Amino acid sequence: MKNNIYIETYGCQMNVADTELVMGILNNKGYDITKDIKSANVILLNTCSIRENAEQRIYGRLGNLKKIKEHKSDTVIGILGCMAERVRKDLIEEKKMVDLVVGPDEYRRLPEFIDTALAGDKGIGVKLSRTETYDDIIPFREDGLSAWISVMRGCDKFCTFCVVPFTRGRERSRSLDSIVNEVKILSQRGFREVSLLGQNVNSYCDDKYDFADLLESSALVDPSVRIRFTTSHPQDLSDKLLYTIAEHKNLCSYIHLPVQSGSNRILELMNRTYTIEHYLNLIEKARKIIDSVTFSTDIIAGFPSETFEDHLMTLDVMQQVKYDGAYMFKYSAREGTKAYKMEDDVSEETKTKRLNEIIDLQQSISYNLNQQLIGKSEEVLVEGFSKKSDEFMAGRTDNNKVVIFPNDGIVKKGDYVKLNIDRATSATLFGKQAEIVLPYDIKTPELV
Ligand code: SAH
Ligand code: SF4
Ligand code: F3S
């Protein structure tokens, strides 16, 4: 019987990219990938550990999958990703919920582990590596407009609240040449947007090349392919990087720059390695160098010992920066991290209250920023029909904002169009089409 593998992906974009990598590895070995869970004899969950509720979700899903196993006892159920590193003992030995546990640095050997599990033993591969970057493996990607490329793995920052350094291991970068080559292949396949990924993408380092060099080389591949990147750490956002973004039109002027908290005392306890003054200076500098640059952020509410004053400082920073968008979370204590040893002393009720205030403020900031765009013209990459109706199309601006506009039957997915913005909510812009700037069916320029 041919093996039919089904994969579900949870967590961040790194996991989305890793699933494509895993599919590439399995395809090369002749395994079939299926989108239909019923026809699968191997079911894999690519998991996330970042907060307690992320792990709870997976335990819930494993509970459902047990029912499949009751009907088809030879089905292999496996855990990939960050939870493989954190809770392997619990999953395999104590709860006996899975047959296979393979962490982020052991995917090369996944086919071997799957065979072990199919033969009735436990397939376990959880070693972290200092060197594995999967540089030579081309991920399996369906055709489309947007693709993700992992350019580095792991993290050396050790923020005190975060499990990533423990689940993903030490920081290491792929080679610039192989990444640029991947951008070329994607451009030739008709992709129009590439996002370069890493937990600290701006500390990318390949020998003599830094992240600014990588961005520049990627931008030069094809001017009709937009290059995005995430996540940037405030410690490593160099002037050279800012000037590089300013110089190339297809490098998006949108920086995801997590601040986490507005209080220097909390930032120090978090081991974020910057002060709010440094952070705000950085934002100001970026605004001077890059025309109409925008920012998004991550914020944690209720870190151990956070006072009401600390919380107000976070709200204040949000007011000062005016982020386009934010990912906002309640602090979740994670075993094994430094913060786990601090008393989780902000009550659940206070965490919720502070988080809601943060969310409300962000919503009003986003709304006001979007209102200011009414009457302006924005260049948009068309992604297809809008979710609600084929009578409308949806696209994204350089700053990653979604714009909805009427479908005239001519404009199509992959075109770049200019739109006049005439209405806005906090999450979406609405516009009318002014002109097609770059149609999708033109031949892409000669590759460099
Ligand atoms: N490498 C990125 C993001 C990593 S995880 C960075 O450094 O910014 C994404 C976000 O999850 C973090 O920015 C943080 O805001 C949040 N996060 C991480 N650990 C958390 C925890 N224990 N509780 C709540 N939020 C957390
Ligand atoms: Fe986690 Fe901090 Fe590393 Fe981001 S920089 S992945 S928050 S340890
Ligand atoms: Fe989650 Fe791991 Fe990403 S913990 S956020 S899947 S790096």
Keywords:
binds FE3-S4 cluster, alpha/beta, 5-stranded mixed beta barrel, 448 residues, OB fold (Dihydrolipoamide Acetyltransferase, E2P), pyruvate-formate lyase- activating enzyme, binds S-adenosyl-L-homocysteine, Rossmann fold, 34% helix, 13 helices, 3 domains, 21 strands
Q: Helix- and strand-based class? A: alpha/beta
Under CATH, the homologous superfamily of the largest domain reads: tm_1862 like domain
Rounded average pLDDT: 95
Fraction of residues in β-strands = 15-25%
Strand ordering within the main sheet = 2-1-3-4-5-6
Structure described in brief:
With 448 residues, this protein is α/β, with parallel strands linked by helices.
